[in-house]
Design a protein that fits this description.
71% helix; 16 helices; single chain; mainly alpha; Four Helix Bundle (Hemerythrin (Met), subunit A)
């Protein structure tokens, strides 16, 4: 039976003259609210336009999954609201993907600057996917930080305090400042995830591919880049191409490092000695580490990876998707060849 208090609330909710925000506050302050009242309020919220900041407290106190789905579809939340919803447990998989993507964009200078909220949400509520993304970002940023420190030291040594910096120099210094805050937060977030018992997703070992067991961290990044390429290709082909290029770089590094380790007294060099994918391809060709067909695949991945990294004034979506789909075939051929290598074996395995 509906109580008098519930009937009074229902009348107020159904009266369109009553402000919705006020009704939400009233219902939240009421200790015992019936499902009938909550459903009526859900219907009212779903039929009107109010901000997520008004809806969030209600969703936090009452588990309203159906309302969340309806309102989320009608009015997709911004990044801050998405992080709050993620912490409440709504749309876990969808929001984790979105927050991880936003964190990665921030790490390469394309984000919104809200990384403190992203780190908080992902470190406290994220899973293996969040840890995997943060490890990838850490790996990619390490080289950037080393380079920026060298540049920053050079600027400090080369200019006096009275120096008027150029725009480029100021951008560099600002980016250094960003990294000095972002990187420690990243490491703290990774540590918190591990303290929560979160582990990187690891696929079942394949006996035919013992290289996976030899260099698990690099191979995990390769797997991550492959998944990102496939997932991003339909709607974000340029970002998919960037991930394909990174996957190719990871494979080249493995091949060069294996060749160097198998011939420590030769003139061979480790992957860290090369500045670009092009340099690595040239070295592998010179040392006969790759067949011509694989060299062609790598050339395609390098060319279209570069294409994706620069502004394209004429960039029809269909053409770009077609390029990405074609390039993905080259990457799959490269991966198939890579998986035939047994990097545990002596140099006779083809890494001469």
């Amino acid at each position: 039976m509906t109580s008098i208090a519930d009937k009074a609330l229902l009348i107020r909710i159904q009266n369109k003259d009553n402000k919705l925000q006020t009704l939400i506050v009233t219902v939240m302050r009421t200790l015992d609210v019936s499902d009938l009242v909550l459903e009526a309020l859900d219907h009212r919220i779903a039929s009107e336009w109010i901000t997520w900041s008004d809806v969030l407290p209600y969703l936090r106190k009452h588990s309203r999954n159906k309302l969340f789905e309806v309102y989320c579809e009608r009015s997709p939340p911004g990044l801050f609201d998405a992080s709050e919803l993620f912490k409440m447990g709504y749309g876990k998989e969808y929001f984790e993907d979105r927050l991880c993507k936003a964190l990665y964009d921030t790490s390469i200078g394309k984000g919104s600057g809200m990384y403190s909220y992203l780190f908080e949400a992902l470190s406290e509520h994220g899973g293996p996917k969040s840890l995997e993304m943060m490890e990838v970002i850490k790996h990619e940023l390490y080289g950037v930080i080393k380079t920026n420190r060298i540049v920053s030291d050079a600027i400090s040594d080369g200019f006096s305090e009275e120096k008027v910096y150029s725009v480029g120099e100021l951008k560099q210094l600002i980016h250094d400042k960003f990294l000095s805050d972002f990187f420690p937060r990243l490491e703290s977030a990774i540590e918190l995830l591990r303290l929560r018992g979160i582990q990187l997703p690891v696929e079942s070992p394949n006996e035919e591919n013992s290289s996976i067991q030899k260099l698990p961290e690099r191979v995990q990044r390769l797997q991550f880049y492959m998944r990102q390429a496939v997932e991003l290709l339909p709607k974000h082909p340029l970002e998919a191409l960037n991930n394909m290029r990174k996957a190719a770089e990871a494979i080249c590094k493995d091949v060069l490092d294996a060749a160097f380790e198998n011939s420590p007294n030769s003139n061979r060099k480790p992957a860290a000695a090369f500045k670009s994918l092009e340099d690595m391809i040239n070295r592998m060709r010179k040392e006969d580490l790759i067949p011509p067909s694989i060299e062609n695949c790598l050339g395609s991945l390098q060319t279209f990876g570069n294409f994706a990294s620069h502004d394209q004034e004429e960039d029809p979506q269909n053409t770009t998707v077609a390029i990405a789909e074609s390039t993905l075939l080259h990457l799959k051929t490269l991966v198939e060849w890579y998986e035939t290598l047994n990097l545990h074996c002596p140099p006779s395995n083809g890494l001469r």
